[in-house]
Amino acid sequence: MGRYTAPPGLGISLSVQVAPEQRPDQDTRIDAHLRVRAAAVGPRDRIPAVDIALVLAVDVAAGRRDAAVAALAETVSALPDGISYTVLGGGASQCYPLTGRWALAGPDDRRHAAFSVGRIAAAEEGRPPTGYTTWLARARELFAERALPVRHLVLVTDGGSRSEDDDAARADSALSIELTRCEGEFTADVIAPGAGWDPAPLIAVAERLHGAAASSPDAFAPAVATALGRLRKVRSPELPIEVAVRPAVREVTLTEIAPHQQRLEPDPAGDDPFRLEFRTHQWQPESRDYLLTLRADAGNDPLGVPLQLAEVTVGGAAGAVVVRWLPSGTAAATAGLSGAAGRNIHTMNVSTQMRTALNHGYAALDLESRERAEAQLGLAVRLATEIAADWVLDEVRKVARIVDGPQGHVLIGPAVDPGTVRQGLLSITSGHPVELPPVPRAGPAVRCPHCDHPAGAAAVFCIDCGRQL
Protein backbone atom coordinates (compact mmCIF):
# COMPACT_ATOMS: atom_id res chain seq x y z
CA MET A 1 0.00 0.00 0.00
CA GLY A 2 0.96 3.62 -0.13
CA ARG A 3 1.85 3.87 -3.83
CA TYR A 4 -0.63 6.69 -4.44
CA THR A 5 1.32 8.86 -6.88
CA ALA A 6 0.46 8.57 -10.56
CA PRO A 7 3.40 7.34 -12.67
CA PRO A 8 5.26 9.89 -14.80
CA GLY A 9 3.50 10.54 -18.10
CA LEU A 10 0.08 9.38 -16.88
CA GLY A 11 -2.71 11.31 -15.17
CA ILE A 12 -5.31 9.19 -13.34
CA SER A 13 -8.93 9.97 -12.49
CA LEU A 14 -11.43 7.65 -10.80
CA SER A 15 -15.24 7.55 -10.80
CA VAL A 16 -17.25 5.31 -8.44
CA GLN A 17 -20.90 4.49 -9.08
CA VAL A 18 -22.97 2.51 -6.58
CA ALA A 19 -26.70 2.23 -5.96
CA PRO A 20 -26.94 4.47 -2.87
CA GLU A 21 -29.85 2.67 -1.17
CA GLN A 22 -29.34 -0.95 -0.16
CA ARG A 23 -31.29 -3.59 1.76
CA PRO A 24 -29.59 -4.41 5.07
CA ASP A 25 -28.70 -8.02 5.78
CA GLN A 26 -25.99 -10.06 7.44
CA ASP A 27 -24.57 -10.87 3.99
CA THR A 28 -25.53 -7.99 1.71
CA ARG A 29 -23.91 -7.88 -1.71
CA ILE A 30 -22.84 -4.40 -2.82
CA ASP A 31 -21.73 -3.89 -6.44
CA ALA A 32 -19.84 -0.75 -7.43
CA HIS A 33 -18.78 0.37 -10.90
CA LEU A 34 -15.26 1.80 -11.02
CA ARG A 35 -14.10 3.69 -14.10
CA VAL A 36 -10.40 4.55 -14.17
CA ARG A 37 -9.35 7.10 -16.79
CA ALA A 38 -5.68 7.38 -17.71
CA ALA A 39 -4.61 10.44 -19.70
CA ALA A 40 -1.23 11.13 -21.28
CA VAL A 41 0.80 13.79 -19.51
CA GLY A 42 3.81 15.39 -21.19
CA PRO A 43 5.04 15.81 -24.76
CA ARG A 44 5.78 12.17 -25.63
CA ASP A 45 3.17 9.93 -27.24
CA ARG A 46 5.34 6.80 -27.01
CA ILE A 47 7.85 5.48 -24.52
CA PRO A 48 11.47 5.60 -25.78
CA ALA A 49 12.64 2.46 -27.54
CA VAL A 50 15.74 2.43 -25.32
CA ASP A 51 13.45 1.57 -22.38
CA ILE A 52 12.33 -1.69 -24.03
CA ALA A 53 13.88 -5.16 -24.02
CA LEU A 54 12.22 -7.50 -26.55
CA VAL A 55 12.60 -11.26 -27.03
CA LEU A 56 11.27 -12.60 -30.36
CA ALA A 57 10.79 -16.36 -30.03
CA VAL A 58 9.78 -18.19 -33.21
CA ASP A 59 8.58 -21.77 -32.79
CA VAL A 60 7.36 -23.23 -36.08
CA ALA A 61 7.54 -26.52 -37.94
CA ALA A 62 9.81 -27.00 -40.94
CA GLY A 63 6.94 -26.42 -43.36
CA ARG A 64 6.56 -22.85 -42.06
CA ARG A 65 10.25 -22.03 -41.79
CA ASP A 66 10.58 -20.13 -45.09
CA ALA A 67 7.58 -17.94 -44.30
CA ALA A 68 8.95 -17.39 -40.80
CA VAL A 69 12.32 -16.26 -42.17
CA ALA A 70 10.62 -13.70 -44.44
CA ALA A 71 8.40 -12.46 -41.61
CA LEU A 72 11.35 -12.20 -39.21
CA ALA A 73 13.42 -10.27 -41.74
CA GLU A 74 10.55 -7.81 -42.18
CA THR A 75 10.10 -7.57 -38.41
CA VAL A 76 13.72 -6.83 -37.46
CA SER A 77 14.07 -4.39 -40.37
CA ALA A 78 11.32 -2.26 -38.83
CA LEU A 79 12.56 -2.26 -35.21
CA PRO A 80 13.02 1.26 -33.79
CA ASP A 81 16.49 2.59 -33.07
CA GLY A 82 17.69 1.82 -29.56
CA ILE A 83 15.49 -1.14 -28.70
CA SER A 84 17.30 -4.11 -27.11
CA TYR A 85 16.30 -7.43 -28.63
CA THR A 86 17.11 -11.12 -29.03
CA VAL A 87 15.76 -13.62 -31.58
CA LEU A 88 15.25 -17.25 -30.53
CA GLY A 89 14.57 -20.15 -32.88
CA GLY A 90 13.98 -23.92 -32.76
CA GLY A 91 14.60 -25.46 -29.34
CA ALA A 92 14.79 -21.96 -27.81
CA SER A 93 18.30 -21.56 -29.24
CA GLN A 94 19.64 -18.08 -29.95
CA CYS A 95 19.51 -17.05 -33.61
CA TYR A 96 20.51 -13.39 -33.27
CA PRO A 97 22.70 -11.62 -32.25
CA LEU A 98 25.55 -13.83 -33.42
CA THR A 99 27.74 -12.77 -30.50
CA GLY A 100 26.56 -11.69 -27.07
CA ARG A 101 23.08 -12.03 -25.69
CA TRP A 102 21.42 -8.78 -26.79
CA ALA A 103 21.43 -6.66 -29.92
CA LEU A 104 20.76 -2.92 -30.05
CA ALA A 105 18.69 -1.90 -33.07
CA GLY A 106 20.22 0.62 -35.45
CA PRO A 107 20.78 0.98 -39.23
CA ASP A 108 23.77 -1.39 -39.42
CA ASP A 109 22.35 -3.81 -36.90
CA ARG A 110 19.02 -4.11 -38.75
CA ARG A 111 20.84 -5.00 -41.98
CA HIS A 112 22.86 -7.71 -40.22
CA ALA A 113 19.77 -9.02 -38.44
CA ALA A 114 17.63 -9.21 -41.59
CA PHE A 115 20.33 -11.35 -43.19
CA SER A 116 21.15 -13.44 -40.10
CA VAL A 117 17.60 -14.56 -39.27
CA GLY A 118 17.83 -16.76 -42.35
CA ARG A 119 19.70 -19.22 -40.14
CA ILE A 120 16.79 -19.68 -37.74
CA ALA A 121 16.08 -23.31 -36.93
CA ALA A 122 12.63 -24.88 -37.13
CA ALA A 123 11.26 -27.39 -34.65
CA GLU A 124 12.91 -30.74 -35.41
CA GLU A 125 10.68 -33.65 -36.34
CA GLY A 126 11.21 -36.86 -34.42
CA ARG A 127 12.50 -35.08 -31.32
CA PRO A 128 10.53 -34.44 -28.13
CA PRO A 129 8.77 -31.05 -28.27
CA THR A 130 10.60 -28.19 -26.62
CA GLY A 131 7.61 -27.15 -24.52
CA TYR A 132 6.35 -23.64 -23.86
CA THR A 133 7.88 -23.89 -20.40
CA THR A 134 11.35 -23.97 -21.94
CA TRP A 135 10.68 -20.88 -24.07
CA LEU A 136 9.44 -18.96 -21.02
CA ALA A 137 12.41 -20.03 -18.88
CA ARG A 138 14.83 -18.97 -21.62
CA ALA A 139 13.16 -15.56 -21.88
CA ARG A 140 13.24 -15.14 -18.09
CA GLU A 141 16.98 -15.92 -18.09
CA LEU A 142 17.60 -13.32 -20.80
CA PHE A 143 15.50 -10.60 -19.20
CA ALA A 144 17.36 -11.06 -15.90
CA GLU A 145 20.36 -9.52 -17.71
CA ARG A 146 18.44 -6.54 -19.10
CA ALA A 147 17.02 -4.39 -16.30
CA LEU A 148 14.92 -2.08 -18.49
CA PRO A 149 11.52 -0.63 -17.54
CA VAL A 150 9.62 -2.64 -20.17
CA ARG A 151 10.54 -6.29 -20.85
CA HIS A 152 8.36 -8.15 -23.30
CA LEU A 153 8.29 -11.56 -24.99
CA VAL A 154 6.60 -12.15 -28.34
CA LEU A 155 6.14 -15.90 -28.79
CA VAL A 156 5.25 -16.93 -32.34
CA THR A 157 4.15 -20.57 -32.29
CA ASP A 158 2.22 -22.97 -34.49
CA GLY A 159 1.76 -25.33 -31.54
CA GLY A 160 4.39 -27.88 -32.47
CA SER A 161 6.38 -27.27 -29.28
CA ARG A 162 3.56 -28.07 -26.87
CA SER A 163 4.64 -30.79 -24.46
CA GLU A 164 2.81 -32.87 -21.87
CA ASP A 165 4.05 -30.49 -19.17
CA ASP A 166 2.22 -27.55 -20.79
CA ASP A 167 -1.05 -28.16 -18.93
CA ALA A 168 -2.50 -24.78 -18.05
CA ALA A 169 -5.37 -26.33 -16.07
CA ARG A 170 -3.09 -27.84 -13.41
CA ALA A 171 -1.54 -25.55 -10.80
CA ASP A 172 1.33 -28.02 -10.30
CA SER A 173 2.24 -28.38 -13.99
CA ALA A 174 5.62 -27.20 -15.23
CA LEU A 175 3.91 -24.47 -17.28
CA SER A 176 1.93 -23.10 -14.32
CA ILE A 177 5.02 -23.10 -12.09
CA GLU A 178 7.10 -21.31 -14.72
CA LEU A 179 4.37 -18.73 -15.31
CA THR A 180 4.45 -17.96 -11.59
CA ARG A 181 8.20 -17.40 -11.83
CA CYS A 182 7.76 -15.11 -14.85
CA GLU A 183 4.97 -12.94 -13.43
CA GLY A 184 6.35 -9.52 -12.62
CA GLU A 185 9.56 -10.21 -14.57
CA PHE A 186 8.20 -9.60 -18.08
CA THR A 187 5.01 -9.46 -20.11
CA ALA A 188 4.18 -11.56 -23.18
CA ASP A 189 2.12 -11.71 -26.36
CA VAL A 190 1.38 -14.94 -28.22
CA ILE A 191 0.98 -14.97 -32.02
CA ALA A 192 -0.32 -18.25 -33.42
CA PRO A 193 0.04 -19.00 -37.17
CA GLY A 194 -2.13 -21.74 -38.61
CA ALA A 195 -4.74 -23.54 -36.53
CA GLY A 196 -3.04 -26.71 -35.27
CA TRP A 197 -2.41 -25.42 -31.76
CA ASP A 198 -4.13 -26.03 -28.44
CA PRO A 199 -5.52 -22.62 -27.38
CA ALA A 200 -5.55 -23.30 -23.61
CA PRO A 201 -1.81 -22.90 -22.88
CA LEU A 202 -1.50 -19.95 -25.29
CA ILE A 203 -4.33 -18.12 -23.53
CA ALA A 204 -2.77 -18.97 -20.16
CA VAL A 205 0.59 -17.46 -21.20
CA ALA A 206 -1.05 -14.26 -22.47
CA GLU A 207 -3.36 -13.81 -19.50
CA ARG A 208 -0.85 -14.64 -16.75
CA LEU A 209 1.79 -12.41 -18.37
CA HIS A 210 -0.65 -9.59 -19.14
CA GLY A 211 -0.44 -9.61 -22.92
CA ALA A 212 -2.62 -10.70 -25.83
CA ALA A 213 -3.05 -13.94 -27.77
CA ALA A 214 -4.07 -13.81 -31.42
CA SER A 215 -4.13 -16.06 -34.46
CA SER A 216 -2.14 -14.96 -37.49
CA PRO A 217 -1.25 -15.96 -41.05
CA ASP A 218 2.25 -17.36 -41.62
CA ALA A 219 3.35 -13.83 -42.59
CA PHE A 220 3.25 -12.69 -38.99
CA ALA A 221 5.25 -9.42 -39.26
CA PRO A 222 2.14 -7.16 -39.09
CA ALA A 223 1.01 -8.94 -35.92
CA VAL A 224 4.41 -8.33 -34.28
CA ALA A 225 4.30 -4.69 -35.39
CA THR A 226 0.85 -4.33 -33.77
CA ALA A 227 2.12 -5.85 -30.53
CA LEU A 228 5.16 -3.57 -30.48
CA GLY A 229 3.05 -0.51 -31.30
CA ARG A 230 0.77 -1.26 -28.37
CA LEU A 231 3.77 -1.84 -26.11
CA ARG A 232 5.25 1.57 -26.94
CA LYS A 233 2.04 3.26 -25.78
CA VAL A 234 2.40 1.77 -22.30
CA ARG A 235 3.04 4.57 -19.79
CA SER A 236 2.98 2.38 -16.68
CA PRO A 237 3.87 -1.36 -16.67
CA GLU A 238 2.01 -1.80 -13.37
CA LEU A 239 -0.54 0.22 -11.40
CA PRO A 240 -2.12 -1.00 -8.14
CA ILE A 241 -5.79 -0.50 -7.31
CA GLU A 242 -6.00 -0.34 -3.54
CA VAL A 243 -9.17 -1.05 -1.58
CA ALA A 244 -9.57 -0.29 2.13
CA VAL A 245 -12.80 -1.49 3.79
CA ARG A 246 -14.67 -1.22 7.07
CA PRO A 247 -14.51 -4.25 9.41
CA ALA A 248 -18.13 -5.05 8.54
CA VAL A 249 -17.02 -5.95 4.97
CA ARG A 250 -16.13 -9.64 4.88
CA GLU A 251 -15.38 -10.25 1.20
CA VAL A 252 -13.91 -8.12 -1.61
CA THR A 253 -13.65 -9.08 -5.29
CA LEU A 254 -12.55 -6.95 -8.25
CA THR A 255 -13.21 -7.89 -11.88
CA GLU A 256 -12.01 -5.97 -14.91
CA ILE A 257 -14.89 -5.78 -17.38
CA ALA A 258 -13.34 -3.67 -20.15
CA PRO A 259 -11.21 -3.66 -22.18
CA HIS A 260 -10.60 -7.26 -21.02
CA GLN A 261 -12.64 -9.47 -18.74
CA GLN A 262 -10.49 -10.88 -15.95
CA ARG A 263 -10.83 -11.56 -12.25
CA LEU A 264 -8.04 -9.81 -10.34
CA GLU A 265 -6.43 -11.58 -7.41
CA PRO A 266 -5.73 -9.46 -4.31
CA ASP A 267 -2.48 -9.11 -2.42
CA PRO A 268 -2.81 -8.36 1.31
CA ALA A 269 -1.31 -5.07 2.44
CA GLY A 270 1.05 -6.17 5.19
CA ASP A 271 -0.73 -7.25 8.36
CA ASP A 272 -3.86 -5.18 7.76
CA PRO A 273 -6.74 -7.53 6.86
CA PHE A 274 -8.91 -4.58 5.80
CA ARG A 275 -6.59 -3.39 3.02
CA LEU A 276 -6.11 -5.16 -0.31
CA GLU A 277 -4.05 -4.35 -3.37
CA PHE A 278 -5.04 -5.50 -6.87
CA ARG A 279 -2.24 -5.23 -9.42
CA THR A 280 -3.07 -4.12 -12.95
CA HIS A 281 -0.69 -3.95 -15.89
CA GLN A 282 0.29 -2.22 -19.14
CA TRP A 283 -1.48 1.12 -18.74
CA GLN A 284 -1.66 3.47 -21.69
CA PRO A 285 -3.93 6.50 -22.21
CA GLU A 286 -7.30 4.72 -21.96
CA SER A 287 -10.38 4.06 -19.84
CA ARG A 288 -10.96 0.84 -17.90
CA ASP A 289 -14.10 -0.41 -16.17
CA TYR A 290 -14.13 -2.60 -13.06
CA LEU A 291 -16.84 -4.26 -10.99
CA LEU A 292 -16.06 -4.08 -7.28
CA THR A 293 -18.17 -6.48 -5.19
CA LEU A 294 -18.36 -6.30 -1.39
CA ARG A 295 -20.11 -8.63 1.05
CA ALA A 296 -21.10 -6.65 4.13
CA ASP A 297 -22.82 -7.32 7.44
CA ALA A 298 -25.34 -4.57 8.11
CA GLY A 299 -26.46 -6.03 11.46
CA ASN A 300 -24.82 -3.42 13.69
CA ASP A 301 -25.16 -0.38 11.42
CA PRO A 302 -27.73 2.42 11.76
CA LEU A 303 -30.46 2.72 9.12
CA GLY A 304 -30.88 5.68 6.82
CA VAL A 305 -27.38 7.09 7.48
CA PRO A 306 -24.71 7.44 4.75
CA LEU A 307 -22.02 4.83 5.49
CA GLN A 308 -18.66 4.54 3.78
CA LEU A 309 -18.01 0.84 3.20
CA ALA A 310 -14.81 1.18 1.19
CA GLU A 311 -12.23 3.60 -0.14
CA VAL A 312 -10.62 2.95 -3.54
CA THR A 313 -7.34 4.59 -4.54
CA VAL A 314 -5.38 4.32 -7.78
CA GLY A 315 -2.56 6.48 -9.07
CA GLY A 316 -3.29 9.32 -6.65
CA ALA A 317 -7.06 9.35 -7.36
CA ALA A 318 -9.55 8.22 -4.74
CA GLY A 319 -13.23 7.31 -4.58
CA ALA A 320 -15.60 6.16 -1.85
CA VAL A 321 -18.30 3.46 -1.80
CA VAL A 322 -21.07 5.10 0.24
CA VAL A 323 -24.51 3.53 0.84
CA ARG A 324 -27.53 3.86 3.13
CA TRP A 325 -29.25 0.86 4.70
CA LEU A 326 -33.00 1.24 4.21
CA PRO A 327 -35.58 -0.09 6.65
CA SER A 328 -37.57 -3.15 5.63
CA GLY A 329 -40.90 -2.55 3.93
CA THR A 330 -42.09 -0.60 0.93
CA ALA A 331 -39.37 2.04 1.10
CA ALA A 332 -36.71 -0.62 0.59
CA ALA A 333 -38.30 -1.84 -2.62
CA THR A 334 -36.29 0.73 -4.56
CA ALA A 335 -32.96 -0.44 -3.15
CA GLY A 336 -30.25 -2.09 -5.21
CA LEU A 337 -30.18 -1.91 -9.00
CA SER A 338 -31.90 1.38 -9.71
CA GLY A 339 -30.91 4.54 -11.57
CA ALA A 340 -27.88 5.01 -13.82
CA ALA A 341 -25.53 3.24 -11.42
CA GLY A 342 -27.86 0.24 -11.18
CA ARG A 343 -28.22 0.00 -14.97
CA ASN A 344 -24.46 0.11 -15.51
CA ILE A 345 -23.82 -2.52 -12.83
CA HIS A 346 -26.52 -4.76 -14.29
CA THR A 347 -24.93 -4.45 -17.74
CA MET A 348 -21.51 -5.34 -16.32
CA ASN A 349 -22.87 -8.42 -14.54
CA VAL A 350 -24.66 -9.55 -17.69
CA SER A 351 -21.49 -8.98 -19.74
CA THR A 352 -19.48 -11.16 -17.36
CA GLN A 353 -22.00 -14.01 -17.61
CA MET A 354 -22.19 -13.58 -21.40
CA ARG A 355 -18.42 -13.80 -21.96
CA THR A 356 -18.16 -16.79 -19.65
CA ALA A 357 -20.92 -18.62 -21.52
CA LEU A 358 -19.36 -17.79 -24.91
CA ASN A 359 -15.98 -19.07 -23.79
CA HIS A 360 -17.53 -22.26 -22.34
CA GLY A 361 -19.47 -22.82 -25.55
CA TYR A 362 -16.39 -22.56 -27.75
CA ALA A 363 -14.40 -24.75 -25.34
CA ALA A 364 -17.13 -27.39 -25.46
CA LEU A 365 -17.00 -27.33 -29.27
CA ASP A 366 -13.24 -27.82 -29.13
CA LEU A 367 -13.90 -30.90 -26.96
CA GLU A 368 -16.67 -32.02 -29.35
CA SER A 369 -19.39 -31.70 -26.71
CA ARG A 370 -22.17 -30.47 -29.00
CA GLU A 371 -25.07 -30.45 -26.51
CA ARG A 372 -23.18 -28.38 -23.93
CA ALA A 373 -21.89 -26.09 -26.67
CA GLU A 374 -25.43 -25.31 -27.89
CA ALA A 375 -26.61 -24.61 -24.33
CA GLN A 376 -23.72 -22.26 -23.54
CA LEU A 377 -23.73 -20.48 -26.90
CA GLY A 378 -27.50 -20.07 -26.59
CA LEU A 379 -27.06 -18.46 -23.17
CA ALA A 380 -24.40 -16.15 -24.59
CA VAL A 381 -26.73 -15.11 -27.44
CA ARG A 382 -29.65 -14.44 -25.09
CA LEU A 383 -27.52 -12.24 -22.83
CA ALA A 384 -25.88 -10.50 -25.80
CA THR A 385 -29.32 -9.66 -27.21
CA GLU A 386 -30.26 -8.14 -23.84
CA ILE A 387 -27.30 -5.70 -23.79
CA ALA A 388 -26.88 -5.30 -27.59
CA ALA A 389 -23.43 -6.92 -27.71
CA ASP A 390 -23.47 -7.59 -31.47
CA TRP A 391 -19.87 -8.87 -31.53
CA VAL A 392 -21.01 -11.95 -29.56
CA LEU A 393 -23.64 -12.73 -32.19
CA ASP A 394 -20.93 -12.49 -34.88
CA GLU A 395 -18.71 -14.94 -32.95
CA VAL A 396 -21.57 -17.42 -32.49
CA ARG A 397 -22.52 -17.26 -36.18
CA LYS A 398 -19.04 -18.55 -37.07
CA VAL A 399 -19.91 -21.93 -35.56
CA ALA A 400 -23.72 -22.08 -35.20
CA ARG A 401 -27.03 -20.79 -36.58
CA ILE A 402 -28.99 -18.41 -34.36
CA VAL A 403 -32.62 -19.54 -34.47
CA ASP A 404 -34.05 -17.22 -31.81
CA GLY A 405 -31.75 -14.63 -30.22
CA PRO A 406 -33.99 -13.37 -27.36
CA GLN A 407 -34.77 -16.98 -26.38
CA GLY A 408 -31.16 -18.12 -26.75
CA HIS A 409 -31.90 -20.89 -29.27
CA VAL A 410 -28.96 -21.88 -31.51
CA LEU A 411 -28.20 -24.90 -33.67
CA ILE A 412 -24.76 -26.24 -34.49
CA GLY A 413 -24.41 -27.79 -37.94
CA PRO A 414 -23.14 -31.30 -38.68
CA ALA A 415 -19.56 -30.11 -39.24
CA VAL A 416 -17.60 -27.35 -37.51
CA ASP A 417 -14.09 -26.41 -38.62
CA PRO A 418 -11.69 -27.05 -35.66
CA GLY A 419 -9.48 -24.18 -36.81
CA THR A 420 -12.38 -21.75 -36.63
CA VAL A 421 -13.16 -22.91 -33.10
CA ARG A 422 -9.57 -22.47 -31.92
CA GLN A 423 -9.20 -19.06 -33.54
CA GLY A 424 -12.50 -18.06 -31.94
CA LEU A 425 -11.21 -18.99 -28.49
CA LEU A 426 -8.32 -16.56 -28.95
CA SER A 427 -10.60 -13.87 -30.36
CA ILE A 428 -12.90 -14.02 -27.33
CA THR A 429 -9.99 -13.13 -25.05
CA SER A 430 -8.80 -10.18 -27.15
CA GLY A 431 -11.10 -7.40 -25.95
CA HIS A 432 -14.54 -6.37 -27.27
CA PRO A 433 -15.29 -3.90 -24.44
CA VAL A 434 -18.79 -3.69 -23.04
CA GLU A 435 -20.54 -0.46 -24.05
CA LEU A 436 -21.52 1.62 -21.02
CA PRO A 437 -23.01 5.14 -20.90
CA PRO A 438 -20.64 7.98 -20.00
CA VAL A 439 -19.89 8.13 -16.30
CA PRO A 440 -19.92 11.59 -14.67
CA ARG A 441 -16.48 12.65 -13.57
CA ALA A 442 -15.98 12.61 -9.83
CA GLY A 443 -15.39 15.76 -7.87
CA PRO A 444 -11.89 16.63 -6.75
CA ALA A 445 -10.29 14.17 -4.35
CA VAL A 446 -9.36 15.37 -0.89
CA ARG A 447 -6.78 14.29 1.65
CA CYS A 448 -7.36 13.66 5.32
CA PRO A 449 -6.15 16.69 7.32
CA HIS A 450 -5.06 14.38 10.14
CA CYS A 451 -3.09 11.60 8.36
CA ASP A 452 -2.89 12.82 4.72
CA HIS A 453 -4.59 9.66 3.40
CA PRO A 454 -6.46 10.28 0.08
CA ALA A 455 -10.25 10.22 0.16
CA GLY A 456 -12.97 10.36 -2.44
CA ALA A 457 -15.16 13.39 -2.96
CA ALA A 458 -18.14 11.60 -1.33
CA ALA A 459 -16.22 10.49 1.76
CA VAL A 460 -17.19 11.92 5.16
CA PHE A 461 -14.71 10.04 7.36
CA CYS A 462 -11.13 8.92 6.65
CA ILE A 463 -10.99 5.19 5.97
CA ASP A 464 -7.45 5.12 7.37
CA CYS A 465 -7.60 6.92 10.72
CA GLY A 466 -11.38 7.11 11.13
CA ARG A 467 -11.55 10.82 11.88
CA GLN A 468 -13.90 13.25 10.18
CA LEU A 469 -12.64 14.89 6.99
Automatic annotation (TrEMBL):
| Coiled-coil segments | none
List each copy of the VWFA domain by range. Answer: 53-213
Quote the Pfam families the UniProt record gives.
VWA_3 (PF13768)
Q: What is this protein called?
A: VWFA domain-containing protein
* Organism listed in the record: Streptomyces gelaticus
Lineage at the top is: Bacteria, Bacillati, Actinomycetota, Actinomycetes, Kitasatosporales
